[in-house]
Structure formats: C-alpha cells, structure tokens
C-alpha cells in the first residue's frame, strides 16, 4: 500500500494514529469520531441530525456513539442550572478518558437559554437529590454498602490505602489517577493491606502487562484489585503443644495427673534396648553377673566388672 498525503495549510485536523487505528471500534465509530473532532469548539449537533445528514441510519449512528462512549471518547454530561433547568453538554476526546459518574453537575452563574428538550424543575416539589457536602467524595457508595466501605475500614485505613496506591502507581505514567478516583479504589486497597499484602505485592499485581492503549486506568486497577485479591488468612489456630509429667513416675502424659500404669489401669511398656523381649534377657544376665561377683568376694580395686 502506498499512501499519498497532502500538506494543507488551513482547514485540517491532527489526530493521533491510535484513534484511527483502534480496531476494537467499528469503522463507523472511528469515522464519526474523526468527523466530531474536526468540528470547532462549541459545535452543537445531536445524533439525529448526524444520521439525517449521512448515509448511515439513526440506528447505526446511535450504536457508533455508544461505542465511542464505552471507549471513553464521547461523553454527554447533564448540567443543572441555578434555576433548576437541566441542559446537556457533550464532550469529545482524541484521547480516551475514564468514564465519569452520570450525575447532574450544578454550575454557578445565571440561567442560560436551554434547548427545546431541556427539563424544567417544579419549584414547589421536594428536591429529588440531597445537598452534597463538599467533604464527601463525588462517587457514591457501592451497591449494597451503606457507607461505601465494603470492609468497614476506618478513615485512617482509607487514607493509608490512598497513599499506598499513589506510591505503587507512581512509576507507571499510564496509571495517573485523580484524588476522587483513588478514594473510590481505597476500600479494595485496604482489603489487600488487611490481608498482609505490602506495596511490593500490590505493584507486582497492578503494574505488569498493562493493556495498550490504556482507555480507563480506574477500570483496569479495579479489575486487578478485585480478581487478584489474595485469600484471607486462615482463622484456625493450632493449639499450643502441652506437656505434663506423671506425678508418680515423671513419665510424659497428655494431661496433668498420673499415668495409666501408675494408676494400675495398664501395664507399663518397656521400650529400652529394642523392647521388652530384648530387655528381659539382658537384665537376667546382668543380675546373674552381679550375684557371681558378690560370691567371689570383693575385687582388689573395689570395683566389680561384669562381662
């Protein structure tokens, strides 16, 4: 294939090759993205008008926009104006961004004229969303968790988890996170730390083999933190070995007291010199030798030698 390029001096757009060569996106989605990136900032056009002015139908354009949104190239954000009116703002990126929460963002300033499909708020109706405290993280708690802490971690543990996460991903420029994104991952990092993992263990689990291109650092880190979580340490404790002696013969016994032979409940085993069968003849020979030595009289050296 021979590529012929011109060198325009005006009305041209510079795009990264990774965008146009990203084969996980359909050709329709990539062509639509190139069209959107060629528009000036502030351009307003909805998906219906895109379909009506192109050979593709509305369904194809809708699917292409969904592909771009899932890949992080396209995002529609709802903005709540001070008078309660909600408008939409579309963002198009030439570098994929992490998916943002689909909450309505308030903006300061006076009311601006919205489009025909904007919603009007009833001033006499109770607000549907509570007022958010500035100290609260923007991300809501996970499903099924009332306080957003699946492991019940304390604030100090979460702060330590955030600091550890930033320290682990610092060597990898593709894993740049914001503070809110790090706080959202902090409960998972805290669970690793609770199970005895170190920063080196986290680095070994999070950094090698990152995908290229990187579309969502948060999604990659969350997947690895969840699926590579080490098992919880065993709660079964091995009982300490106990040692006791018989109060009569001082032989080892499993529990304090006297052993069975001393209590007359069992014969005493002989385990010297290969067992009772080997010990009895030896003891008989030793007694016979002692008797013979005594019968022979005292030894000149005062010692009795047994042979």
Q: How would you describe this protein?
A:
There is one protein chain. With 307 residues, the chain is mostly helical. Helix content is 35%, strand content 7%. The chain contains 9 helices and 5 strands; from the N terminus they run H-H-H-H-E-E-E-H-H-H-H-E-E-H. Strands 2-1-3 form a 3-stranded mixed beta sheet. A two-stranded antiparallel ribbon has the order 4-5. 11% of the residues are buried. Residues 110-121 and 130-149 have low confidence and may be disordered.
Low-confidence stretches: 110-121, 130-149
How many runs of DSSP E, i.e. beta strands? 5
C-alpha Rg (nearest Å) = 40 Å
Secondary-structure class: mainly alpha
Sheet with the most strands, sense and barrel status: 3 strands, mixed
Strand content: 5-15%
Topology of this protein?
Layout: H1 17-20, H2 27-37, H3 47-52, H4 58-71, E1 74-80, E2 86-92, E3 105-106, H5 155-169, H6 179-194, H7 199-206, H8 217-227, E4 244-245, E5 252-253, H9 276-296
Parallel strand pairs: 1-3
Antiparallel strand pairs: 1-2, 4-5
Helix pairs in contact: 2-4, 5-6, 5-7, 6-8
């Amino acid at each position: 294939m021979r590529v012929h390029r011109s060198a325009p001096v005006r009305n041209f757009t510079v795009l990264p090759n990774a965008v146009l060569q990203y084969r996980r996106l359909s050709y329709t989605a990539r062509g639509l993205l190139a069209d959107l990136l060629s528009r000036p900032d502030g351009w307003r056009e909805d998906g219906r008008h895109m379909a009506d002015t192109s050979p593709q139908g509305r369904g194809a354009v809708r699917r292409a926009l969904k592909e771009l949104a899932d890949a992080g190239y396209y995002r529609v954000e709802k903005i709540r104006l001070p008078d309660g009116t909600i408008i939409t703002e579309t963002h198009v990126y030439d570098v994929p961004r992490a998916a943002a929460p689909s909450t309505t963002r308030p903006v300061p300033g006076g009311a601006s004229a919205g489009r025909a499909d904007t919603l009007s708020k009833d001033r006499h109706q109770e607000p549907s969303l509570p007022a958010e405290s500035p100290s609260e993280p923007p991300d809501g708690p996970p499903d099924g968790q009332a306080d957003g802490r699946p492991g019940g971690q304390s604030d100090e543990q979460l702060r330590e988890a955030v600091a550890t996460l930033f320290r682990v991903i610092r060597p990898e420029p593709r894993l740049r996170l914001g503070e809110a994104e790090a706080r959202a991952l902090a409960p998972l990092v805290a669970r690793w730390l609770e199970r005895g993992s170190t920063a080196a263990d986290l680095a070994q689990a999070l950094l090698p083999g990152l995908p290229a291109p990187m579309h969502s650092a948060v999604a990659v880190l969350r997947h690895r933190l969840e699926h590579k979580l080490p098992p919880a340490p065993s709660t079964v404790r091995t009982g300490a070995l106990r040692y006791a002696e018989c109060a009569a013969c001082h032989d080892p016994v499993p529990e304090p007291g006297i052993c069975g032979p001393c209590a007359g409940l069992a014969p005493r085993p002989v385990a010297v010199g290969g067992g009772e069968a080997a010990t009895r003849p030896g003891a008989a020979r030793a007694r016979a030798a002692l008797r013979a030595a005594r019968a022979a009289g005292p030894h000149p050296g005062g010692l009795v030698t047994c042979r």
